[in-house]
Amino acid sequence: MTQNKLLLDSWTAQLYDEKQCDELLAQLEQQSAVEHRPNNPRTMKNGKIPLRKWAVEEQATGKTEDGKVSFPDYPYPGFQYGKVVEWRPIVKKMRDRVDALTKQSSTFANVKKYPPDASMDWHQDKTSTWKKDTGVAILSLGFTRQLQIGRKAQTAKGNDKFDVVATVDMLPGMVFFLGPETNKTYFHRVKPLAKGQQARAGCRWSLQFREIVVYGAARAEQESKKRKQEEVATDGDDDDDDEQPPSKKARLSDDDA
Q1: Where are the alpha helices (DSSP H) in 32-122?
Q2: How far is CA 238 from the centre of its chain?
Q3: What pTM, to 2 d.p., does this model score?
Q4: Is the Cα dihedral 177, 91, 117, 201 positive or negative?
Q5: pLDDT for residue 255
Q6: For range 191-219, the mean pLDDT
Q7: What local confidence, expressed as pLDDT, does residue 142 receive?
Q8: Which of 58, 69, 242, 247 has its Cα between 20 and 30 A from that of 22?
């Protein structure tokens, strides 16, 4: 299969054709249980943290030790609100095809559904729990969205800005491989659609496969405890201020495209 080089150690490849994509998408929608997670706490409004526009489910290879199941640890804001599940059959099938292409052994996947009004801000993936010198393979299904790669710079006032160096049309069935050097050198995002475009767009599914080697013990118990603590703290907040504006600095809190 032809790999089309993009930047440094990143490339794209067409893994599935149109008919295969339609079949995979139908099974994915049937098997996956994606959910909307709370946003960053700084977006709190009227004492509540709004839900993110995109929905997600984490699937992974679990390990059982001393009667407790642990899963690969890939922490990012919102991760603590959900639970990781063993591979759904259809995602496992796609994982095997992707791994044969990348020569990696994925242990973890974010299965993410983007409605037309959802996007992902500029960020670099956090790799501390990944196998050394591995990247992330992103498989797209559904509506075509653009993934942009940019170089971070600053305005005259000292605010962050990004100069786009590459734009990838994430076609259905396409794999975009973000290599470790590209991730360290550049930032990337899912470009927002204009209001007029949203009315004509459909949902995009993004499956991000990673080889994570650090496992978290009894994660479900930890997540449940943390979620209850945050809910108690939130319920006691009487702040009626409007939604807080995003930071002028680049947001590094959101992973995954």
Answers
A1: 89-102
A2: 32
A3: 0.84
A4: positive
A5: 60
A6: 91
A7: 98
A8: 58
